[in-house]
Structures are given as structure tokens and as C-alpha cells.
Design brief:
Number of helices: 12
Shape: elongated
Organism: Leucobacter soli
Subcellular location: Cytoplasm
Oligomer: single chain
Distance between the termini: 32 Å
Radius of gyration: 22 Å
GO cellular component, one term: cytoplasm
Structural class: alpha/beta
GO molecular function: pyrroline-5-carboxylate reductase activity
Order of helices and strands: EEHEEHEHEHEHEEHEHHHHHH
CATH superfamily of the largest domain: NAD(P)-binding Rossmann-like Domain
Function: Catalyzes the reduction of 1-pyrroline-5-carboxylate (PCA) to L-proline.
């Protein structure tokens, strides 16, 4: 994992689509200490969405529904173009902007299942294409992002994209054939944890606690344990052992959970996630 070098200046940026993830990236780019060469051009579908950035310093927003040339205008002069639209819209968007991309620009897709080869086939070798797989904790600056460059992207292009996502958390540079696995582990990972909190809360309710009490017990425990893991720097297995006294109450509960076949369950869950990414890649 790596973090950002605060002395670096990112090239001029265009962000096509600023939903929850794009908004998180934009917030990271506007954080104190982050330097970008020129204003950040963003596009949104509706005028109302674009209007949200009307008073944002260093941001120029365009609405595609009122200006059909918005995406093309945004990428002109940009050295780094972030594609923040849904996977099934990526190829059409690239066809729309291909002729307006600056030679040597870096195009970054955060879409699951859209391969670098399929994107390079549209934009040619005039630009570098990189895939990134961030996750939703990026919205609070605690994201984990996997970054992979294709044949068109040299080390410098990948490093630029790494610096971009380091504004919203940690970054891991991987091969493209690992991106689907990144999606299965960290990309979708927050949903697994939220599901755990849901089930823990429901179990507490069945023990007789009120909804408010159950939520406080489950959510407070998970947040506190995560912070303990982060601050301690210890291996999670070691932290678990410290709570699990031999022949104690925790040991009994842990034994039941482990007897449920967690290793196989996680393997099956990740495999299903990766299989869906492969299906998206195949169209």
C-alpha cells in the first residue's frame, strides 16, 4: 500500500460523471495540500447536479443534458481524464470524446468489468489507459484502491493515477488480471462488513435489546474494533487471541463461527463476485 507525495502536482483533470465515487475523488482533489494544474472540469447529466459545483473553487461544471458538447469540452486540455459513468456507458463515452482527448493524456476508468483492451481499441495509442477499483470509504478519505495500467500506460502514467487515488486513501498497484479480485475483496468489501453489522444487530435484538440498544452495541463494537486494529498495527489474528481466553465465553462463540465454514464461505463469495466481473467483461 502507498500514500501520496504532497509535493507532487497533478495534471489538469477532467471528471466525466460525479456520482458518489466521483464526488469522493473530487473532494479528495480539493483537500488542503493537493495541487492540481488548473481548474478541474466535471460533467454531470443534469443542470441541477452541475449547479452543486457552481460555487466550488477550482471547479468548472458542465451539464450534458443542456450542452451536448459538455464531455468533449471538459477533456480538451486535460492530462488526466476520469471516467465515472456506469460500466455499460464507458464505451459510448469513449467514442464520444476520443477525438478530443489530448495526445499523451491518461484515461482512468473506475468501472467494473470493462477491460483495458476494449477501451484501448476505441481511443487508440494516443493516450494511456488505466483501470482503478476504489471503494466507498473513499468518501471519508479512508478508501482502498487497486490501480492497473495497460500496455499503453507506462510507469509514469500509473504513478500519476496512484497519486490521484492517494488523495482519498491507500493505493495498491496491481496487474489488470488482479483487478476483478480487488473488486471482490476491497471494492465490495464494505458491503460484507455492513451485512455483518446488520446480522449482529438483528441477533442482539433477538436477545432482547431494543433496536437502539442493539445498533449501539453492534455498530460501536465494529467501529471500535476497526480503530483498534488500525492503531495497534497488530495482526488481526493476534488481536482476536487477546480477546479469546482459553475455555472462556468468547472461545465458545468463535468456535461456533469457525465451525460454520468461514474459509469456504469467503472463497465462494469472492468467486461469485469475480465470476460476475468476468461476465461483465464478456458483455
Amino acid at each position: 500500500m502507498s500514500t501520496r507525495d504532497e509535493s507532487e502536482t497533478l495534471p489538469r483533470i477532467a471528471m466525466l460523471g460525479v456520482g458518489s465515487m466521483g464526488g469522493a475523488i473530487l473532494a479528495g482533489l480539493r483537500s488542503p495540500g493537493v495541487r492540481v494544474d488548473g481548474p478541474i472540469a466535471v460533467t454531470a447529466k443534469s443542470a441541477a447536479s452541475a449547479e452543486r459545483y457552481a460555487d466550488a473553487e477550482g471547479v468548472i461544471a458542465h451539464a450534458t443534458e443542456s450542452d451536448p458538447e459538455a464531455n468533449r469540452k471538459a477533456v480538451r486540455g486535460a492530462g488526466l481524464v476520469v471516467l465515472g459513468v456506469k460500466p455499460w456507458l464507458i464505451h459510448d463515452l469513449l467514442r464520444e470524446i476520443a477525438e478530443d482527448l489530448e495526445p499523451g493524456a491518461i484515461v482512468v476508468s473506475v468501472a467494473a468489468g470493462v477491460t483495458i483492451a476494449s477501451m484501448e481499441a476505441i481511443v487508440g495509442d494516443r493516450v494511456s489507459v488505466v483501470r482503478a477499483m476504489p471503494n466507498t470509504p473513499a468518501t471519508v478519505g479512508l478508501g482502498v484502491t487497486g490501480v492497473a495500467g495497460g500496455p499503453s500506460a507506462g510507469a509514469e502514467a500509473v504513478e500519476t493515477v496512484r497519486s490521484l487515488f492517494a488523495t482519498v486513501g491507500q493505493v495498491l498497484v496491481v496487474r489488470e488480471d488482479q483487478i476483478n479480485a480487488i473488486a471482490a475483496v476491497s471494492g465490495s468489501g464494505p458491503a460484507y462488513l455492513f451485512l455483518y453489522v446488520e446480522e449482529m444487530t438483528a441477533a442482539a435484538r433477538r436477545l432482547g435489546f431494543t433496536e437502539e440498544q442493539a445498533a449501539a452495541l453492534a455498530e460501536g463494537t465494529v467501529v471500535g474494533a476497526a480503530e483498534l486494529l488500525r492503531r495497534s498495527g497488530e495482526d488481526p489474528a493476534e488481536l482476536r487471541r487477546r480477546v479469546t481466553s482459553p475455555k472462556g465465553t468468547t472461545e465458545q462463540a468463535v468456535n461456533v463461527l469457525q465451525d460454520g465454514g468461514w474459509p469456504e464461505l469467503f472463497d465462494r463469495a469472492f468467486a461469485a463476485n469475480i465470476r460476475r466481473s468476468e461476465e461483465l467483461s464478456a458483455g
